[in-house]
Specification:
heterodimer, A: about 300 residues, mainly alpha, ABC transporter involved in vitamin B12 uptake, BtuC, 13 helices, B: about 300 residues, 2 strands
Chain lengths: ~300, ~300
């Protein structure tokens, strides 16, 4: 598929997403506005994970940590009466980047299955930390009484918040595209496909991988700040390890070798979840085997179907 | 902090340690031999606990419940290997993680469907309940002593099987060169299925012993599974010796940490600060330990193959 058809597909998707608020308003179905906004927030998180998982080959099983850090950054500031959105979201990004720096600095020294388990364990550690801090509600979590305040944009307005999320999603798609095609992105991808050759042409992968890990963490931190504003509630469950697994599935279902793939994956997974859970309370009994089958037989993801199998 | 309390908590740590070892042994064997990362290992722990509890209630005999529970978990493990996991050996770790994650969702929901979402309570028979006076001032639950004994016995048996028998020789050979073992006429697929099934049964044993101490509920396997990951990462993935050492270290650090971090902090901090920081620090302790071990030895304490 050439770049022109690709642009048409992406443009159509964008128009469809932009049309959701007026259409939902027309049929008086605010539920769908809510649903698609939630999906887009997870799409941002999955997109950030794909930078390290798909392009960097770093199988992080703890990406939900940054959703949690971003959410707690907003929630904790709000808890102490600081409602300024710029401050809250800046803290969400900076704090996530710092946590990613620490986790990455230890984890990237290892590889393979060690890396998977260590990133999982670090996230679990943060999860338990969240559970044990009674000041912020312990394992019950706490309500976000006031959403982030931005002056002009009011997040209590459902469609204004929706378009803000959409704008951030598009911005991150563009940023992600430029990043993976930059010199920096080339080194990351080279280190994934052959570490020894990357070293022999004079690049040490470690600092590049760490930088990518930090960037992905910071992006996901912003998704966390969006998520807590969306749910208006903060709980350690944001960092639950099953959340990390879901993010990985979004990336895989969508297709790893494409920037827009995880967005498709987020839509596929969350809409299937939504449909199944509306049908039976035992929806996980069906989702589980579906996921197993998708791993066994659906290797290239939705982006592979839509854009052809590149790479 | 008196000596009796320290001893009691040390025994608790040992009990958690052998439990972790039973889980870690299967997981690390499967990884070492089949190169498979199996997240669904915690599901066998859960299946073992449910089956044994149900069979005990149905037959009225604890021993029969344990035996049927073990046999049931063995069968479930073999079926899972034949149906789903066999095709995953040749795939990369990412596919294995994702597929076994899907299996976890399936098993948790299956248990919720068959037994309900609420926890069920497992009991122990009269002859295993009660306390034993180890020495003056320390009365320790008999059941926990039995767990320690069973765990150590299984560890010894496992060492014997792997190091001294023909089956163990095949297992070790299969781990180092699969193609060569197959060329020598050994049915390597059957060997893999057996190893996987017995690994599942070991996890089931841990689960059914843990049932009466903790609660039996859907999702019970995942909490211990992540601790088991810490164990095998610290010990060195693929190494049974490492799993044993790692399990005892993690069991001790976790148990002693939960018991003594808060009082120790209280001696340097204000009581309220210690109350806040103590539990948080205690629950993070094993992960910090893992980070330190990895910073010093990225392959764990006992690397399986150098």
């Amino acid at each position: 598929m050439n770049s022109r058809t690709r642009a048409i597909v992406l443009g159509t998707g964008l128009v469809l997403l932009a049309a959701v608020p007026p259409v939902a308003g027309l049929f008086n179905q605010p539920f769908y506005l809510d649903l698609v906004r939630r999906v887009m927030i997870f799409a941002i998180a999955a997109l950030s994970l794909n930078l390290i998982l798909g392009y960097g080959g770093m199988i992080s099983f703890g990406h939900a940590a940054y959703l949690g850090i971003g959410a707690y950054a907003v929630g904790v500031l709000a808890h102490y009466g600081i409602d300024n959105g710029f401050l809250q979201w800046a803290l969400a990004i900076v704090a996530s980047a710092l946590v990613a720096l620490v986790i990455g600095a230890v984890s990237i020294r290892t590889s393979g299955v060690y890396f998977i388990m260590i990133t999982l364990a670090f996230t679990q550690m943060l999860y338990y930390l969240g559970i044990s801090i009674e000041e912020f509600g312990g394992d019950d979590g706490m309500r976000l009484a006031v959403k982030s305040q931005f002056g002009l944009i009011d997040l209590n307005d459902g469609s204004a918040f929706y378009y803000l999320v959409l704008a951030i999603l598009v911005l991150f798609l563009v940023l992600g595209h430029r990043l993976v095609n930059s010199r920096f992105g080339m080194v990351i991808r080279a280190a994934r496909s052959n570490e020894a050759r990357t070293r022999s042409i004079g690049f040490s992968p470690y600092p590049y991988r760490l930088a990518a890990f930090v960037i992905a963490g910071a992006m996901c931190g912003l998704a966390g700040a969006l998520l807590v504003n969306h749910t208006a509630y903060l709980t350690p469950e944001f960092m639950n390890w099953t959340r990390s697994g879901e993010l990985m599935f979004m990336v895989i279902l969508g297709g790893m070798a494409s920037i827009a793939g995880p967005v498709l994956g987020a839509f596929a997974l969350l809409l299937v979840e939504d449909a199944l859970s509306g049908w039976t309370q035992h929806w996980q009994l069906i989702l589980g085997p579906l996921l197993v089958l998708s791993v066994l037989f659906f290797r290239h993801g939705l982006a592979g179907l839509l854009f052809g199998k590149n790479e | 902090m008196n000596i009796v309390l320290v001893l009691e908590q040390t025994l608790n740590g040992l009990q958690l340690g052998v439990m972790l070892f039973l889980m870690a042994a299967g997981l690390t064997l499967v990884f070492g031999i089949m190169n498979l990362v199996n997240l669904a290992h915690g599901s066998f722990y859960m299946v073992g606990a449910y089956l044994a509890t149900t069979f005990y209630q149905a037959t009225g005999s604890f021993a029969l419940g344990v035996l049927l529970g073990l046999a049931g978990t063995l069968v479930v493990g073999i079926v899972v290997e034949l149906v789903a996991l066999r095709t995953l050996y040749e795939r990369d770790h990412l596919d294995q993680v994702l597929a076994t994650f899907g299996l976890i969702l399936f098993f948790n929901e299956l248990m919720a469907m068959l037994w309900g979402r609420a926890a069920i309570y497992a009991t122990i028979p009269g002859y295993l309940s009660g306390h034993v006076e180890l020495f003056a001032g320390l009365r320790y639950p008999l059941y926990r002593l039995v767990i320690i004994a069973v765990g150590l016995a299984v560890a010894g048996l496992l060492w014997f099987v792997v190091a001294r028998t023909r089956l163990g020789m095949l297992i070790r050979a299969g781990a180092s060169n699969r193609a060569m073992v197959a060329a020598l006429g050994v049915n390597i697929r059957l060997l893999y299925t057996l190893v996987f099934g017995f690994g599942a049964a070991l996890a089931g044993l841990a689960g059914l012993m843990a049932g009466p101490i903790h609660v039996v509920q859907p999702g019970m396997g995942e909490l211990i599974l992540i601790e088991v990951f810490v164990v095998i990462v610290i010990g060195g993935i693929g190494s049974i010796r490492g799993a044993f050492a790692g399990a005892l270290i993690v069991g001790m650090v976790d148990t002693l940490g939960r018991a003594f971090v808060r009082p120790m902090l209280a001696t340097v901090l204000s009581p309220s600060a210690a109350d806040t920081a103590g539990p948080a620090l205690a629950s993070m302790l094993i992960y910090l330990l893992m980070a330190i071990v990895l910073a010093l030895r990225p392959q764990g304490l006992f690397p399986a193959r150098s």
